Amino acid sequence: MKLSDTSIRNAKPEGKDYRLSDGNTLYLLVKTAGGKYWRMDYRFQNKRKTLALGVYPRIKLKIARKRCHDARQLLDEGVDPGQRKKEAKQEASSANTLEFITREWHQKNIHTWTEGHARKNLGNLELNIFPWLGDKPIRLITALELLTALRRIEDRGALTMAHKAKQICGQVFRYAIATGRAEHDISASLKGALAPHKKRHMSAITDPIEVGGLLRAIDSYRGHFVTRCALKLAPMIFLRTIELRHAEWAEVSFDTHEWKIPAEKMKKRNMPHIIPLSKQAMEILQEIKPFTKHRSKYIFPSIRGNTRCMSENTILTALRRMGYSKEEMTGHGFRGMASTLLHENEWPPHVIELQLAHKENNGVKAAYNHALYMDKRREMMQWWADYLDKLKNTK
């Protein structure tokens, strides 16, 4: 006899477990403790198996019959419904883990970052967080568990990396909330839990006399020709090292004396950046042009292959060979040098900031400003190149 909602409701626990059959291998298992469980018996590859279909009353009779029917269809297709259920559960579980959601978030946002920034974001968590929490459902991770993982980074003295890992985890948790796989950003409750870290400032030479000495040392550099040209150009255009290394010939106009870097190669990847090129900068480009343009798209290709740009350590290594320690000067330090001395020489701060390609918080204003004050920027860049020549020639 088929079951009914009434007969199911009226089924009372007895001295031992018993079944109420609904036919077609579907039955309700009534436990001595009072629980009522939907089950289906079947055979697959000559083995008797039981499939759990849910718990009454959350799963009503109609739904239980539908699940049983679906399972019978899988059997007709030669598929084990129990194994399919297990695989679906595993798939659902993996899609909710911290690692899975982090990689999904990473792919969603990778187009907004530079290659190096994207690599560092994921690499930080791969190294420091995934080994401890990566395979755990993000909804089940507690603030204490995340703090424990972060303190492992802190304990080895990598405070900046620990704070960065916390920041990235916060972005992942907020993404998980937006996609319905988490309810809280537990990283927010860890404010102040890590030891504070001081923001690192890149070493830079800003004393005019010392700047002159550095420029003379660059002129006397006896390393690779491409490296020397990059070193000579770096103080004139004061770009980030990664932007200088990835410079391409196609981005430079010898007619307008401009270098236009596409938006996707800039740090924030939100708009192109224009560098007015001084006469001195043009001379350096003309000097290296016969040496690299015919064999590479990059102005400063790697010495190990023309299809790659210069290594990220090349300029830093060259500075060390010239005798400058990491506490004195870095490749990024050319930006600090220019910013300091241009401000001291009373160039308009907004013109300096635009040429440094610092982030503009107002998106509309930023889109308008990327080519704004171009005449003043061109004037400033030529003055700056002339000023560097003056420092270099003053002993």
Question: What this model shows, in words?
Answer:
There is one protein chain. The chain is of the alpha+beta class and 395 residues long. The chain contains 17 helices and nine strands.
The number of domains is 3
Q: CATH superfamily assignment of the largest domain?
A: Intergrase catalytic core
Give the terminus-to-terminus CA distance.
107 Å
Q: Widest sheet: strand order?
A: 1-2-3-4
Q: How many DSSP E strands?
A: 9
CATH class label of the largest domain: Mainly Alpha
Instruction: Please give the largest β-sheet.
Output: 4 strands, antiparallel
What is the share of helical residues? 40-55%
Report strand %: 5-15%
Q: Per CATH, which architecture of the largest domain?
A: Orthogonal Bundle
Q: Specify the overall morphology.
A: elongated
CATH topology-level fold name of the largest domain: hpI Integrase, Chain A
Q: What is the helix tally?
A: 17
Structure summarized in a few sentences:
With 395 residues, the chain is an alpha+beta fold. Helix content is 50%, strand content 12%.
Write the layout of secondary structure elements.
Elements: H1 5-10, E1 18-23, E2 26-30, E3 36-44, E4 47-56, H2 61-76, H3 81-94, H4 98-109, H5 115-128, H6 130-133, H7 143-155, H8 159-178, H9 208-219, H10 225-237, H11 241-245, E5 252-253, E6 258-261, E7 273-276, H12 279-292, E8 301-302, E9 305-309, H13 314-321, H14 333-344, H15 349-355, H16 363-369, H17 374-392
Antiparallel strand pairs: 1-2, 2-3, 3-4, 5-6, 6-7, 8-9
